[in-house]
């Protein structure tokens, strides 16, 4: 009877051990999958202005390689604003975004390959509001030092004028006056010369007429 119980107990223990090994063996590959941990922008968050890039973080090192990782960032119009292939570095993925990305709700869809070779994927959303303009800083001004009172400068004296012309003009302003005076002098001399020449001619004509008259009288007497 004791032997039968021992054999039955051994069979039960063996079955339990086999079942446990099967369960643990099946659970080990699943436990080895890398999980999504966090992101920037954070899932379901709201940020001011669209970022230049987004990043995804996981629990373990990801498998790199061509087409192993794909990231899409879809705006409200359905356009993908992700540019350039994503960069995988250790346990993180970086994806650059278009500088022309608008505001609104964005959906991030990603897929990559876990360290154990199994593909994993997921998605989340974040919201972008218009970037807020920063207020310019107010420049600080130092207090103006007190200055001792000074005498007010005397007003500039006007230049003295002679005959309506400012005395400060110098010799250049007198040149036209000199020119006109010389011209008047020359004209005066010319007029005097003409008058004198005419008078002398008139006197010569009278003298000649007197001589001619005397000669005529002499001829008549003879």
From TrEMBL:
Residues 133-164 are annotated as: Disordered. InterPro entries: CopC/D, CopC_dom, Cu-Rt/internalin_Ig-like, Ig_E-set. Its main location: other. The keyword Isomerase does not apply. It is found in: Cell envelope. Residues 1-32 form the signal peptide. The keyword Flavoprotein does not apply. Residues 134-150 have a biased composition (Low complexity). Residues 33-128 form the CopC domain. It comes from the Bacteria. The chain crosses the membrane at residues 174-197. Keywords: Copper, Membrane, Metal-binding, Signal, Transmembrane, Transmembrane helix. This is Copper resistance protein CopC. It comes from Microbacterium algeriense. The lineage of its organism: Bacteria, Bacillati, Actinomycetota, Actinomycetes, Micrococcales.
